[in-house]
Amino acid sequence: MSTEANIVSQEAFGFAVNGGDLDALDALVTADSVDHDPAPGQGPGPAGFKDLFGELRAAFPDLRIAVDHLTASGDDVAFAYTVSGTHRGDFQGHSATDRRFSVRGVQIGRFVDAKLAERWGSSDQLGILTRLGLA
Questions:
Q1: Which of 42, 51, 66, 87 has the most neighbouring CB atoms within 10 Å?
Q2: DSSP for the chain, written as a single string
Q3: Confidence class of residue 127 from pLDDT cuts 50, 70 and 90?
């Protein structure tokens, strides 16, 4: 697949997460995808991403991931992003604080046939907890 097709797939992933259409991830992630930096308890494949973002959207119903910069070459798509939301539900054992957070992160994805096959990434998890008054 082309670099352009991989970018389109990555953008569709972001639209699915931002819009809450997590079932769309089934068509965007390989069945055996590996997240090299998984969230606690995150399983493999599309189900792992659906569970992760389902939990995040339950805790932060207005969850928003905005791509600040994207670059791609061959099978790889990398981007810097800002993730934000308002804490309205349980998050990592903490009840809602109604506080808002906004932090930055980066991700590198490797694609096979325009589907996410591997992911490496990092977001400011301590920044989230600090802005929510939990750390």
A1: 87
A2: --HHHHHHHHHHHHHHHHHT-GGGGGGTEEEEEEESSPPTT--SHHHHHHHHHHHHHHH-TT-EEEEEEEEEETTEEEEEEEEEEE--S-BTTB-----EEEEEEEEEEEEETTEEEEEEEEE-HHHHHHHTT--
A3: very high
